[in-house]
Amino acid sequence: KSANPQWREQFDFHYFSDRKDMLDIEVWRKDNKKHEELLGTCHVDITALPTKQTNCLELPLEKHPGSLLMLIAVSPCTGVSISDLCVCPLGDPNERQQISQRYCLKNSFRDIKDIGFLQVKVLKAVDLMAADFSGKSDPFCVLELGNDMLQTHTVYKNLNPEWNKVFTFPIKDIHDVLEVTVFDEDGDKPPDFLGKVAIPLLSV
User: Which domains does the chain possess?
Assistant: First the structure.
């Protein structure tokens, strides 16, 4: 019930050089659980923004009244990576030793914000639900930790996909929950949900 909503939400998007340079934003209105209406869209060219500073942008919505006020900061990506299983970041003994030193007891208060990091190896899925008429699925896996999100590639026409990817996240809150969701890629349509598991960090 507001024409001037304030969300005050922060999201972290990990921008890799092989991804597109445009940030697409959509604003939706929800009447009830079933009815939604698009109130407008806007786009931000990431490459045009100065780096290592917070940019305050007022973005008019295309073909609709209203605008969005956003703070966008582009900074070097630290602590986040996607790699193949054979080049796992923790596979190097020297790196393991550096990490042990970084998080040892005597260094606990050196950087309060540096809680730690989580490394997840996504190996495979087994006996997934068939989402296509052919009796197969085109599955990919999405990992979410807080407002961080990374995903695997899609394995086409397979109910037992193997991804063999290693994901590394910085931990910002030890009470966060790692959510791992499997979707079926469906072309231009929204992906179909194939399953989900939630893992509290405190249980690891």
Answer: 22-74 (no CATH), 81-203 (2.60.40.150)
Q: Give the list of residues 6+ apart from residue 41 with CB closer than 8 angstroms, or none.
A: 24, 25, 26, 27, 61, 62
Residue type, 85: L
Cα(71)–Cα(58) distance, integer angstroms: 9
Calpha distance 60→66 (Å, rounded): 6
pLDDT tens readout for residues 130-164 = 988 888 999 999 999 987 888 999 999 999 999 99
pTM of the model: 0.66
Give 132's DSSP letter. Answer: S
Q: How far apart (Å, rounded) are the C-alpha atoms in residues 4 and 6?
A: 7
What are 184's two structure tokens? 């079926």
Residue 128 CB contacts under 8 Å (≥ 6 apart), including other chains: 137, 139, 159, 160, 161, 182, 194, 195
Using the structure block, give the residue that is written with the tokens 């998080």.
103
